[in-house]
Amino acid sequence: MADLRAGSSRLLTASVWGAGAVLAVIVVQMVTGWGSDHQIRVLNDLAYVPATLLTAALGLQLITRGGLHRRERRAWVLLEVAFIGQGVAHVVSLIRDFQPGLPPYPNVSDYLYLAAIPFVVAGLLLLPAARRDRGDRLKLLIDSLIIVAGACMALWYLEIGPMLQYPGADPAVIAFSTAVPVLDLLLVFALIILLLRRPEAGAAVSLLSGSMALKVVADSTYTVAYIQFGIAYRPGSWPFLLWAAGSFLTLLAVHRRLCQDGLTQARRRGRKRLGWLPYGAIVLAYGLIAFVARHQALYPLGGMIFGGVAITSLVIARQLFAQRENRRLAVTDPLTGLSNRALIAERLTELVRQPIREGRHGAVLLIDLDRFKPINDTYGHEAGDAVLKAVATALRAVIRSGDTAGRLGGDEFAVVLPGLPSRAAAEGIAQRLVDALRTPVIFGDAVLGVEASIGVAFRDETTADIEQLLAHADAAMYAVKRSGRGRYGVYTPELDIRVRDAEMRRAVENDEFVVHFQPVVRLTGDGGGMTVEALVRWNHPARGLLMPGAFIELAEETGAVVAIGEWVLREACRQAAGWQTVNLSVNLSARQVTRTGLAETIRDILAETGFPADRLVLELTESVILHPDEATVARLEALRAMGIGISVDDFGTGYSALSYLRTLPVSVLKIDRSFITGIDTDPDTYAVAEALVRLAKAYRLQVVAEGIETAEQARCVTEMGCDYGQGYHFARPMPGPALAELLAARLSPERS
């Protein structure tokens, strides 16, 4: 089927260019000068028939195949009426060539040509184009009317006026001849409106516009030459070549739209390229006035013309300056003087449209200031503004002349780097920016230190649009923030949050995660049952065994941590169910705690695995329960009612609030390893750790000291009164089978 469609497409293309080759016979005849007037006329009319009939046939196929938007379909229906009319006109003209005695001008074919023009005008005006607000539409109408007014003056002076005064002419001939430039004026109006509106389906419309423009030029040339200079062009002369070229461009336009899927936005720069047209029309109008009045005396008419020209020129100059100033204000950030988001978007659009070439690279840097919010909060917004202005100065000092630096909003900036000789050049600019932004900012008596995290993304095959390019730079920037800030990072596919999120969710489905267990040893009293903490690892198929630090924070950010957390709880309970008298401790993420069905999910997992609720402890990070709402408290109390223990993990690392130790159903407090390191060598560290243990005891909580790595540290925490200890000194995390062997070895001496 695909081969059949490809063959049909090739046949259609060959037919189009074959029709164009037939039209080229007119060029051959013109160059060689072959044939009598009758033979030339027949050859000319015969050459048009394949192109016009094929245009009508393709237009009919375009409007009947479906897939066009309603407005565009209406436009092409009107154009198709014109195509059919032109095709019939050429056939009638060819038939007339073999029937002498018929009126030469105007005849049926001429009336058909003329009748087709209003349908072309209506079709062009209905073609879809970029949306505009009311003000833009009004400016567009004014610009179009200025151009048409200038063209009207030219056509009136050169064609319409002389025709109306032509001596001895038939009134019907005069009426018809006058109608042609009038309808051409309407065609000019439609073309200008269409081009200034930035049409969609751009290539097809450009070809169609070129076709109509050639028709207007050929009509005007033919008429002006006859009226002004008495020259009557015969078939085969150059106005006829313009008409033939226009006919072929119409055929190419319909063929191009037929082969095109959907609409393609025309480049926004097209409006800028055509913005000179209204001023060109004004120049044309004054030029004609000056030409007509060239024989008048300088006083009074000549001086008035020169004065009018001068005043209009000054008005135009003022308008151009105002437009330039408005443009500058519209694309400039008022605080920093850098480009704003709108201009950055324009530059990025230009960047992604550039073809990818060897030795020519494009990149975007996304910059986010580190520690900016504390400056605003501590010193006020004036200090924040001073920092932002200093950042703008640093950006200007580092980037090249062709680069664009802009502020996207808040403390976020972007730099667009086109035409780089290598990727290393972008990284060099990023590093210089990192260094420049470390320079302190003096604000009054304060020295404000600020740094920046920069994400670098390159324009390549993976970036089809600006959203994708910015998303890549954003992913690289946040990877820098997660890994330490104050530097730059280059985007790689591994940093894409959406890709990583999907990868982590697939890993859950494919059982790529594994659970390791680390014993929590009882330090005081009798031995009792052992407690183990379940720790997740990712057995990545390409990157090997990954620790939680490589993926948990991102999983928390994307929400994949919910699926991972439920899998870990289920798998840990399944394995621990076979270990008698072993208590299990499992981490619970912040996102899991906020889910309304938390208690029901855990109850289902316990029922599925057969693990007792009274041997399960759920560990929450301090940040999760720092400001708990009523719903969170209710969920935790529901878990405690099931017999599940609640533990606070990494106590002391967050913004500690002692009130939650009283208000929440917490039973275990785990002191973070940062408070344990150095207790055997530093008296101050020992004193702080001991205070934390006594605080927990005051709230009647069991205390676990994390990160114990030496026997001396174990002795110290035991001396403080810690109930449990956890760390490499006792055991490293291990897979479930290894822990099962450890438990078996522990039970064997007790039985003997």
TrEMBL record:
Gene3D superfamilies: 3.30.70.270, EAL domain
Start and end residues of each GGDEF domain: 360-493
Keyword Transmembrane helix in annotation: yes
Domain of life: Bacteria
Domain EAL, first and last residues per copy: 497-747
Transmembrane regions: 12-34, 46-63, 75-95, 111-128, 140-158, 173-196, 203-225, 237-254, 274-292, 298-317
Keywords: Membrane, Transmembrane, Transmembrane helix
Signal peptide positions (record): none
The protein's name in its UniProt record: Diguanylate cyclase/phosphodiesterase
UniProt cross-references to Pfam families, sorted A to Z: EAL, GGDEF
Alphabetized NCBIfam families for the sequence: GGDEF
PANTHER family, per database record: BIOFILM ARCHITECTURE MAINTENANCE PROTEIN MBAA (PTHR44757:SF2), DIGUANYLATE CYCLASE DGCP (PTHR44757)
